[in-house]
Amino acid sequence: MIGLGQFLEVLIGGLMSGVLYSLVALGFVLIFKASGVFNFAQGAMVLLAGLALVRSLDLLVAWGFPLWVAIIFGISFAAVIMVITAWLIERLVIGPLVNQDGLTLFMSTIGVTFILEGAAQMIFGSDAYPLRLFPTDVWLLFEDLFPGGILVNKLDVWGGFIAGILVAGLAIFFERTKTGRALRAVADDHLAAQSVGIPISWIWFVVWLAAGLVALVAATVWGTKLGVQFSITFLALKALPVLIIGGLTSVPGAIVGGLIVGAGEKIAEVFLGSYIGGGIEYWFAYVLALAVLLVRPQGLFGERIIERI
Amino acid sequence: MLYREAGQFKTTYAEDMAIFPIRQDRMAIAILLGIAFIGVPLLADFDIWPFGSDYLLRAILLPFLILALAAIGVNILVGYCGQISLGSGAFMAIGAYSAYKLGTGVHIPLAWLGFAISIPPLPVLLAILLGGLTAASAGILFGVPSLRIKGLYLAVATLAAQFFFDWVFLRVSWFTNYAPSGSVNAPTLDFFGLNVGTPIERYLLCLIFVTVFAVLAKNLVRGNLGRQWMAIRDMDIAAELIGIRPLYAKLTAFAVSSFIIGVAGALWAFVYLGSWEPLAFSIDRSLQLLFMVIIGGLGSIMGAFVGAAFILILPILLNRIPSELGVPLSTETITHLEFIIFGSLICYLLIKEPHGFARLISLGKEKLRLWPFPY
Prior knowledge:
The complex is a heterodimer of chains A (309) and B (375).
Chain A: H1 4-35, H2 42-62, H3 67-94, H4 102-124, E1 138-141, E2 150-153, H5 154-176, H6 178-188, H7 190-195, H8 200-226, H9 235-246, H10 251-271, H11 273-276, H12 281-295
Antiparallel strand pairs in A: 1-2
Helix pairs in contact in A: 1-5, 1-6, 1-8, 1-9, 1-10, 2-3, 2-4, 2-8, 3-8, 5-6, 5-8, 6-8, 9-10, 9-12, 10-12
Chain B: H1 13-16, H2 23-45, H3 54-80, H4 88-104, E1 106-110, E2 115-119, H5 124-143, H6 152-171, E3 184-185, E4 190-191, E5 194-195, H7 199-222, H8 224-234, H9 236-241, H10 246-273, E6 275-276, H11 283-296, H12 301-325, H13 331-352, H14 356-370
Antiparallel strand pairs in B: 1-2, 3-6, 4-5
Helix pairs in contact in B: 3-7, 3-10, 3-11, 3-12, 4-5, 4-6, 4-10, 5-10, 7-8, 8-10, 11-12, 12-13
C-alpha cells in the first residue's frame, strides 16, 4: 500500500525534475515567440554551454585559481561562447533563410544541431564530465508527520529557485525593456516591425543569445544532476511535449507544462508502471502531449490559432 | 539539342497522360532500369570492380534501395499531403515486427476465453505485405490527430508514436518471441520456393519491391487521390471549401505512406539487417528519412531516390576521406568532423536550394530544353 508520504515524495521529485524540463523548454519558447523557428538545436546548445563551462572550470582549477574566481571566469567564458554561437547562427543560417516556411527552418536547426554537437565535442572533449556547482545532498522533511519523512534533493530546490528567477527576469525583459517590446513586435509581424524601424537581424541575434544563456543556466543545473555528457542533448526531445502542453508561445506555459510533465511521468511510472512493465517514463510525456493536443491544439496557455484564407 | 520535345506529337489522350510524356525521359528511365536490373547483376557476376565485392551491394546499394522506398512513403505524407511526421521510424518498426511475427507464426493465448488464436507461419512475401498493412492501420490511428492539429504540432504528436512503439517493442517480449536479448532473427527468405540469400539476390529482390512501389506511388500522386493530397497541403481550408474531404484525404495519405514505410521496414529488417533490435528504428531513423525527403525535394518521387543516395552515401564518403588522404585522425575526431560537415552541408543546401535536388533537376531540364539559348 502506498502511503500519502510516498505519494508526496514522488510528486515533489516529479515537480522538481519538471522544473528542469522547463529550463530547456524556455529556450524553445523564446526563439519560437520571436522568430517562429522551432529550434531543435536547444539541446545541443545546452551541451555546448555545459561543456564550455565544465572544461574551462576544470582548467582554471587545475591552474590553481580559487574556486570562486574559476566559477566566475568559467561562466563568463561559456557566456562568450554562447554569444559567438548566437551570432554565427543568425549570420550564417537563420538570416539567409528568412521568409522560408517553418519546415525548412526546422530542418536547418537540425543541421545546426549536428554542427554544434560535433564542434562542441571536438573542441571540448566527448567524455562525461562531472560538474559541482550546487549541493546535491538531500533534506528529510516532515519526519514527524510521515514515517520515514519525505526525501527532497537540494539540487531540485536550487533548480526551482533558478527557474523562478529566470522566468521573472525574462518577464521583466519582455514587458519592460525597449528590446523586449521590439521582440514582441517582431513576433507579431516581421514586416510591420521592420517597417517601423526595428532591426530584425539584431533582434534575432538577441533572441538566440537569450536562448543560449538560458541553455547555459539549464546546463549548470542538468550538468550537476547528470554530469555534462552527450546524452544531455536528448533533453531537447523531452522539452517538446512540455512545449506542446504549455503552449508554444507562452513563457509561464513552459513552466507549468514542465511541472505537469515532470509530476505526471513520475507518478505514472511509480503508480502505473509496475502494472504494465515499467519504463513508461520514456513515452508518457508524449502521449500526454498528444491528449492535450486533441483537446486544446494551442496548448494550455498558447495564443489561439486563427486562420484566414 | 538532345533534350527537346519538338516533333513529338501526341495523338491520343493516353499518350498525353503518360507518366513520362517526353521520349528522352522514357529512354533515360529505361536505361536506368536496364543498368539496375541487368547491368549490376552482370557486372557483379563477372566480378568487375567495384561491383564484384559484396561491400558495394551490401553496404551501399541495399540500404539505399530500402531507404529510398521508405523515403517515398515519407514523401507521400510530408511532401504531397503536407503532414509533418517524425514517427516514420516507428512505422518501419511496426512493419518489421509484425512481418516477423506473421513470418514466424502468431500465437495469442486468450486464457480467459478458453481458447487461443494461432496463425501458422506465413510465407515471407505475404508476411512483408501484411506487415505493411499493419503499419498502415497504425498510421491511420496516429493520423487521427492530424484532423485537428497541423504543422509542427503534428510533428510532436507523431513523436508520441515514435517513443511509444520504441518502448512497446523493447518491453513487450511477445513481439520478440520472448528472445532473452531482445534481438530477433529474420526467417529464411523463401520466395515461391526460391531462397534469397546472396547479396545480388537480395539486391534484386529489393529492386523489384522499390520499382513496383515507385510506379504505384507515382501513379497515385498523379491521380485523383494525389491531387486531393496536394490541395490539402497547399491550403487545407480552401481544399475543404471546394469539396475535398480532409478526413478521407489525410487518412488515406497516412495509410498509403505508412504502408510503404512498413514494407520498407520489413525489408530493412529481413533483407538488410537479418537480425535486429528496436534500436534500429529509433528517432534517428525518422530524422534521417525526413532529411532524405527534404534534401531530395518535397513532393517528388525522383527526389526521394536522390535524397536517399545523398544522405546515405555522404557520411560513408566523409568517413573515408581522411584515411584516403592519409591524414592521421582519431576515429573520434573523424566522427565529430563528420557531424560538423554533414550539418553544414545540410544548412548550405537548405539555404541555396530550399526545394531540394528535385528542383535542381527540373531547373536543369528546363535549361537543357532551351539550350543553347538562355531563354
